[in-house]
Amino acid sequence: MFLFLVLSSLLCIFSCKDETARTELPQRIEILGIELRKVEPGTFAMGMSELDERVEPYEGVRSVDITQAYYLGVHEITQSIWEKVMGSNPSNFKGKELPVENVTWKESMAFCEALNKKIKSSQTLPKGMRFRLPSEAEWEFAARAGTKSVYFFGDKSSSISDYAWISDNSIDGTHPVKKKKTNPWGFFDIYGNVREWCLDGYEVRPRKKLIDPLLGWKNMDKVNRGGSWDSCEDCCKTGRRSNFGEDYKSNDVGFRVALGMDLGENLTHDED
Fold first, then answer.
1. Which helix (H) or strand (E) covers residue 79, if one does?
2. Whole-number mean pLDDT of the chain?
3. Domains of the chain
4. Mapping DSSP to helix (H, G, I), strand (E, B) and coil, where does residue 59 land?
5. What stretch of H or E contains 18?
């Protein structure tokens, strides 16, 4: 009986600690008009199944552990937010609530660094966290929102226009953020509007369980996700990857920010 009580007490302590860890961070943060939602740690299957053998090494299913909570932008970075931080607007389609586009991976990274410097003296962020691009795994984990289907709303694309601006309904351009339905975790424009840069370089995925992965960091080709206003339904599948060079820019490429711990991206290209 005594042993049972000791074990019960220990289990309670560990359970309470885990619950505290999950709740001590706020669920939402808003800074300079950027709305962020907390994503709890978890395990999921990243990628796509039933692929051609030539594609499988790049997009095949891998088990991924996300071990630390992080925040992800509820919406893509808008032109008004970009202007507040960078002082200019590089976008082709102009509008304060339109997503910023025509920005390279390097410029998106520079925005994150400028944002960190801008808020350093005026805002209190969760300890150890800073603004950066999401890793590809973080992006897909939040995009899937606990689902295992081809899209977060199911395996068929018939209802995608409820959630996304793509080639079929965009009328050849971007649209203001937050005008379509969210995914189950409250993120807008996961599919379409603009492709979203991620931290990772584009390379083959290791055939093993991945833990907080940041892959191909030093590769010049960078991953982007989600498709754009110019994409078909197939290009918007949750597990679909695409890639461009780090200096590439286009009127259908933008990004959303993450707020989280370093994943190793503090190693710059100059340290190769």
1. helix 79-86
2. 90
3. 25-261 (3.90.1580.10)
4. helix
5. helix 2-23
